[in-house]
Amino acid sequence: MIHELRVHQIELEMQNDELRQAQEILEESRSRYSDLYDFAPIGYLTLDELGIIKEANLTAARLLAVERTRLIDRQLTHFMVTEDRGAFRQHLNLVLKGEERQTVEVRLQRKDGYEFFALLESAFYHDITGSSLCRTALTDITKRRQAELALQESEARYRSLFQHNHAVMLLIDPATGDIVDANPAASAFYGYTHEELISRKITDINMLPKDQVFREMQGAGAERGRQFCFRHRLAGGAVRDVEVFSGPIRVKDQNLLYSIVHDITARKQAEAALQRKQEELQIIFDSVPAMIFYKDKENRFIRTNLALAEATGLPQEEIDGKSLFDLYPSQADDYWKDDQEVMRRGKPKRNIVETFETPEGVRWVQTDKIPYRDAQGNIIGVIGFSNDITERKQAEEALQQAHDELEERVKERTADLQRTVEQLQWEIAERQRTEEALKESEQRLRYLTSQLLTAQEEERKRLALELHDDLGQSLMVLKMQLRAIQRKAPPESSETRESLEDPLNFINEVIERIRRLSHNLRPVILEELGLTTAVQHLFKEFSRQDIHVTMDLDDTEGLFSPEAQLNIYRICQEAFSNITKYAQASQVSVSLKRQDGRVGFQIEDNGRGFDHQKVINENITDRGLGLTAMDERVRMLEGSLKIWSQEGQGTKITLIVPIQGK
Fold this sequence. Notes:
alpha+beta, Beta-Lactamase, 6 domains, five-stranded antiparallel β-sheet, 52% helix
């Protein structure tokens, strides 16, 4: 008996050891399960029939932002937005009925107000007591829902853009050519209903051969987007020119092509009309006698007319595309500087006189250059208009030669006068002891001066007559001939008539220049209308130079001899010339007043002025002929001349002349 008890005791001890080991293994397994349960990436909840939380892992507590101990015995709906509670109760009822695994999406709200989307996956089970329970997996799906909502909004925007866009839009299957979808604008353009349109293929509309249409679709599908110009047939049979922007797009796991179609029929017609217009303009362009050219920013000729081609001796196609450095390397730098200045300043540069090499020799041309702008107003080059002025240049050179000869004569006579003055000064120094000899020398000096001025006026008169009667009449005849050509031109040749306006205007400018030069040499207005009118007309010239002139002139009719009037006019003319050249004035006042047997002239400007005393102290040769001639004329008038001026304060000239009578 004792032996059996001992054996039984040993068996019990062995069973206890096995039970203890099993319990340790169970505890270890339970610990691992607890860790897996608590630290799982999703939340786990155990709910009873009323939806009360009986168990929860740490992840669920973290998602709901509540300590796990405070979750127990609380309704899950407490954390749920009101609108989703009904869906949850329905979900719970289905689970408790023993249905298969159920899922529902609800919005949960934390204590701090943060709201997130959650996916609940639930299954039914009985615990050891037989109670019905619900095991629920809780997953935060906020990011997924946001992505889904964004995708839905994007699809809605795309659909709205597709449906409401005024542009014609098509979706095409590149494999079959089927029109998968079309917006209302496409139906309106092609004249088909939506159902009719999506039952057709793109090859039914595109007038290209089918194989070529498929090649173009393959090319569009291989790139992000391409632009095409096609001809499409409408439902009524009309054919329209279209511009198509097409590229690949994936819709519902299907590779399609999107096509945005623009009707460019009107544009094509306008381009054709523009081409015809350009051809017509080229005909007119080539008929203009002036040389016309267009150049780009790289100094290359873009377009030229026939006159330029004939002048260079090269066909137009050989000129276009070449630069000045290719055609005129020796002169290209000078030409290019003018072009760069026009493009940099954005303003025309006119009356550029330069030489131009031609097969017939060097010619003189006068060129106007203006900025060449595109449709947006950006400067893209230069447009030039060149007129051959070789004959005019020769005439100007002849005129300049005559002027130089006159100047040379004046210089020679001035030199003679200077030598005479020096001789007289020497004689006066030698004969100081006799006052009579001094007076005689002064009289001789004045006589020579008056003779010089008289000779100068006679020479000016002769030159003025030659300019007016010879060169002026020749230009007038040339102008009349051009007018005759213009009048004889057929009425339909309006462009030809207009092309003659520039030469006529230029001749008018030359005639006007000759008239002014002739007037300056011989003031006819002085002889015809008198001193007051001549002075008034002289100073009115300031208005052309944006100088404000104020005049207060008394009538001097019958007060002076013609010689005296001429001397007074020349003094005023010299003052006018000095103001124009040096004063930089903006205001000039002129007064002519008669008082007590004398006439006073006063000319005042607000220009930069000069150091009058310094000029007086200069040697007579350094002072120039202007002031010297004024002094001599004042002596001939037996008057007085006073000049007041300071730097920066303008100049005032006062001339007092005794009345002499005719």
